Amino acid sequence: MNPASNLILVGPMGAGKTCIGRRLAERFGLRLVDADREIELRAGTSVATLFELEGEAGFRARESAVLAELLRDDGLLLATGGGAVLAEDNRRLLRERGFVVQLLVTVEQQLERLAQDRSRPLLARGDREQVLRELAQRRAPLYAEVADLRYDTGSLGSAEAAAGLAAALDRHWRRPAGAPSSSPVSGADA
Ligand SMILES: Nc1ncnc2c1ncn2[C@@H]1O[C@H](COP(=O)(O)OP(=O)(O)O)[C@@H](O)[C@H]1O
Ligand SMILES: O=C(O)C1=C[C@@H](OP(=O)(O)O)[C@@H](O)[C@H](O)C1
Ligand SMILES: [Mg+2]
């Protein structure tokens, strides 16, 4: 098991990386960083606009650079974007620099959670269900390759899921000596 001080969330769009990350950061005394948000801050524009202006390849180059920059630090809760595992160098970096949690979600749950979402360019055209199924098929082995722990949010709401994941991390994540101690998940209803 990986005794890293960073906690890294990977998984598909709508798995809850960003929102569960927010709750867990507080619980484990980690600094929350969301890779997409950091890319947007550096570029001064949105992920959707970057896809439009630079294509997916341009966005992926920015994503790799941001992951490398952020993961020089310790004590982070890093919420990645769903495609962060595509590049082999990213996968190596994630494995080396953190305890990686793969959040599991079904395509049906993704469709429900992202029904109103207009910010994810990969879902902007075509048949959403088909796109999500193709992405899941291609990426599932890549998430599995980097994961130290897999966690299924199933039918849980995000507060319950965060509380359940925190309990699983208490059992499975060996943190380095001197890491801040954990406190209850705020707003958890489980
Ligand atoms: N466990 C959950 N149960 C219900 N809704 C959720 C859950 N996790 C996330 N959501 C909702 O799904 C949407 C996407 O969540 P988000 O955290 O942005 O996912 P990701 O960063 O993995 O793409 C948000 O509207 C969020 O409130
Ligand atoms: O799956 C993907 O390739 C993407 C997922 C998004 O992040 P979330 O997984 O946080 O939605 C964002 O990085 C971008 O729209 C591309
Ligand atoms: Mg996100």
UniProtKB/TrEMBL annotation:
Superkingdom per UniProt: Bacteria
Binding positions (Mg(2+)): T18
Co-factor binding comment: Binds 1 Mg(2+) ion per subunit.
Keyword Ion transport part of the UniProt annotation: no
Glycosyltransferase is among the record's keywords: no
Cofactor annotation: Mg(2+)
Pfam families, per the entry: SKI
EC number: 2.7.1.71
Keywords: Amino-acid biosynthesis, Aromatic amino acid biosynthesis, ATP-binding, Cytoplasm, Kinase, Magnesium, Metal-binding, Nucleotide-binding, Transferase
Metabolic or biological pathway, per its Swiss-Prot or TrEMBL entry: Metabolic intermediate biosynthesis; chorismate biosynthesis; chorismate from D-erythrose 4-phosphate and phosphoenolpyruvate: step 5/7
Compartments it resides in: Cytoplasm
Reaction(s) the record says it catalyses: shikimate + ATP = 3-phosphoshikimate + ADP + H(+)
InterPro entries: P-loop_NTPase (IPR027417), Shikimate/glucono_kinase (IPR031322), Shikimate_kinase/TSH1 (IPR000623), Shikimate_kinase_CS (IPR023000)
Enzyme class: transferase
Residues annotated as binding substrate: D36, R60, G82, R139
Molecular function as annotated in GO: shikimate kinase activity
Function: Catalyzes the specific phosphorylation of the 3-hydroxyl group of shikimic acid using ATP as a cosubstrate.
Entry similarity comment: Belongs to the shikimate kinase family.
Assembly and oligomerization: Monomer.
Protein name (database record): Shikimate kinase
Gene field: aroK
